[in-house]
Amino acid sequence: MPLVASDDALAPILDLARDLAEGAGAIQRERYETDLRIDTKSASIDLVTEVDRACEKLIVEGIEAARPDDAILAEEGHGEDHDAPFRWIIDPLDGTTNFAHGFPRFCVSIGIERRAAQGDYERAIGIVYDPLLDERFEAVQGDGAWLRDRRLAVSPETEWGRALVATGFAYDVHRSEDDNLESFRNVVKSARGIRRDGSAALDLCYVAAGRVDAYWELKLHPWDVAAGYLILEEAGGRVTDFVGGPPDRSGREVASSNGALHAALLERIVRTP
Q1: What is the edge-to-edge ordering of all strands in the sheet holding 253-257?
Q2: Percent of the chain residues topping a pLDDT of 90
């Protein structure tokens, strides 16, 4: 059976997030491999299309109509982050460069945080939807992680030499020496294989599903990781910064694994400013 939220307060929010993720995914399917207007943002390799904006508009308007008191933090600038009982963190199209090139690895990512008694936000719901494969990864805090009606669990792999590992590169890789190229060399020379698919949200979900054993990246953003962190943790995985500390909510340092391989991953990833 599919995921059911045990917390009655989260159940309608989960349903809304599912509907909005699949609605945005439908836009992506319809526009995939069609003519697109492509603009750049922070760098020539940091792309945005009208599909990003249309997906964000659909999601933001849906939240505002159903839950006007919730806060919204979205990649393309809609909504605002303010004091609210719930905060939605949205990447309307994670993997825009892939989408723009017709490379079939992209998704919708929606993370929802709840304000805790002490005033901090804590992860509550994560939805990552791949519209081409029609795969909806999701998690609710305390209720596990699921792919449709299958409960997810990280891989049992304990040998680094048999690990399949994923990574990505920051948009400033052309101009900054603070990158993960040395780490890439360390991993590719020691693990079974390495993949660079171009969607951080899907990479985290693939660790959760046991499809890859570990994933690391630098200089991401909250909307890249908010949903994936929860999905991975609820699947039994581990996510930290590069020295094993609490995961960086901003996404500046992401080290994730099935847990058994975490120490081996941290040994091999370094920053070289």
Answers
A1: 193-195, 164-167, 214-218, 253-257, 238-240
A2: 73
